[in-house]
Amino acid sequence: MRRHPRRGEAGREVTERGAAVGRGIGIGLMYGLWKPRVLGSWRVPASGPVILAVNHSHNIDGPMVMGTAPRPAHFLIKKEAFVGPLDPFLRGIGQVKVDRSTADRGAIAEALGVLEDGGVLGIFPEGTRGEGDFASLRAGLAYFAVRSGAAIVPVAVLGSTERRGRLIKGLPPLRSRVDVVFGDAFQAGDGSGRRTRKVLDEATVRIQERLTGHLKDAKRLTGR
């Protein structure tokens, strides 16, 4: 069993074992409270560094992907979620705390470390929960993809938008169907290995085209 030390707050470690535990919790939680339908999970490469680029319109998007992806995933999660007992819990299941208000070097180092070790990094490229349509992407996804050479797998999480049956705002109604659709893996870089601003900008455009195209295909496939 590999153990991957990471540089980060208080010298905490992100481990494959922790992420595997998180995946198990995600499976129990998601299949216990909702009815996930998973399509295309075979498209996630079985080994090597992978970035799961997930749309973000529900509060369960992260746990849903953690519980349905075929490999344990380390998600970049906003620091505001790491409050009270959730801080050691999220750290313990291999998630990465990030300060979105600044260039968080500790989080960047942890995330790159996950990819350097051939792991799976989960990112919400829109930065925050919204319409979940990939209309506005932050530059972080392109940076991680170009810097690490990791393949990007687009993931569309499509849940019910109906208000009936909801216990908490931002969550699909309990026991409703949630579709998780994995797309084809692709490379964001131009193959040159360069990481100039021009290369990153072009990669961001390329990524957005692939993500929005996948979301459109996923909606057509699921009838959403």
The dominant shape is globular
Question: Based on DSSP secondary structure assignment, what is the total number of beta strands?
Answer: 7
Helix content estimate: 25-40%
Tally of DSSP helical segments: 6
Overall tally of domains: 1
The fraction of residues in strands falls at: 15-25%
The largest β sheet comes out as: 7 strands, mixed
Mean model confidence by pLDDT: 83
Describe this structure in words.
The structure is a single chain. The chain is an alpha/beta fold. It has a single domain (11-222), classed as 3-Layer(aba) Sandwich (Glycerol-3-phosphate (1)-acyltransferase), CATH 3.40.1130. Helices cover 36% and strands 16% of the residues. Strands 1-7-6-2-5-3-4 form a 7-stranded mixed β-sheet, sandwiched between helices. β3, α3 and β4 form a beta-alpha-beta unit. α1 crosses α2 (61-68) and α5 crosses α6 (197-222). The longest helix has 26 residues, at 197-222. It is globular. The chain starts with 15 loop residues before the first helix and ends with a helix. Mean pLDDT is 83; it is low at 1-14.
